[in-house]
């Protein structure tokens, strides 16, 4: 039962992040994350063992990349949920919006120090047209997912 709860919490928290990004699009015309690029990167990682791909946007689209990108996106959210569950089990934190918020802030290290660099956008998105905006959007999305994870674990009685 715990495994099912972990997966449900990961999916719902990811959905919260996706809704947040859609609201940003409606209110401020800020495009949501491009999961096709994520799918393309993942396909190239698996098929060619290529982790660093600074010109990924110039690579021609690959069949099913968008679908695969969405699967990767939700799988990563489930992994975040697993990691938060481990923190709960070892009494490193408790289930709350505050701890979820902190978890979300810490998890932003993944896009800022791994994913942006492997896609050629530099650490903290410094090679993007607007590094401050790139980081701010990553922080916002990760705070939403982390806070959702904290609240959901609390609601699930952990």
Task: Write a concise synopsis of the structure shown.
With 158 residues, the chain is mainly alpha-helical. It has one domain (2-155).
Structure overview:
The chain has 158 residues and is mainly alpha-helical. The protein has one domain. Helix content is 71%, strand content 0%. The protein contains six helices and no strands. It is globular and about 45 Å long.
Oligomer: single chain
Basic shape: globular
Parts with pLDDT < 50 across at least 5 consecutive residues: none
Helix content: over 70%
Number of helices: 6
Averaged pLDDT: 97
Bin the strand percentage: under 5%
The ordered string of helix (H) and strand (E) elements is HHHHHH
The biggest beta sheet, please? Answer: none
Gyration radius, to the nearest Å? Answer: 16 Å
Helix/strand-derived category reads mainly alpha
Distance between the termini: 13 Å
The number of E-state strands comes to 0
| Count of discrete domains | 1
């Amino acid at each position: 039962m715990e495994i099912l709860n972990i997966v449900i919490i990961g999916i719902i928290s990811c959905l919260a992040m996706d809704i947040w990004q859609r609201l940003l699009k409606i209110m401020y015309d800020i495009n949501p994350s491009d999961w096709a690029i994520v799918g393309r990167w993942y396909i190239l990682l698996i098929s060619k063992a290529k982790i660093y791909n600074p010109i990924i946007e110039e690579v021609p689209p690959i069949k099913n990349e968008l679908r695969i990108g969405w699967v990767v996106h939700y799988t990563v959210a489930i992994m975040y949920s697993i990691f938060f569950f481990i923190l709960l089990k070892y009494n490193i934190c408790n289930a709350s919006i505050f701890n979820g918020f902190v978890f979300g802030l810490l998890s932003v290290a993944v896009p800022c120090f791994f994913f942006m660099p492997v896609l050629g956008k530099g650490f903290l998105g410094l090679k993007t047209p607007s590094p401050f905006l790139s980081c701010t959007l990553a922080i916002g999305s990760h705070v939403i997912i982390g806070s959702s994870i904290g609240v959901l674990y609390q609601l699930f009685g952990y």
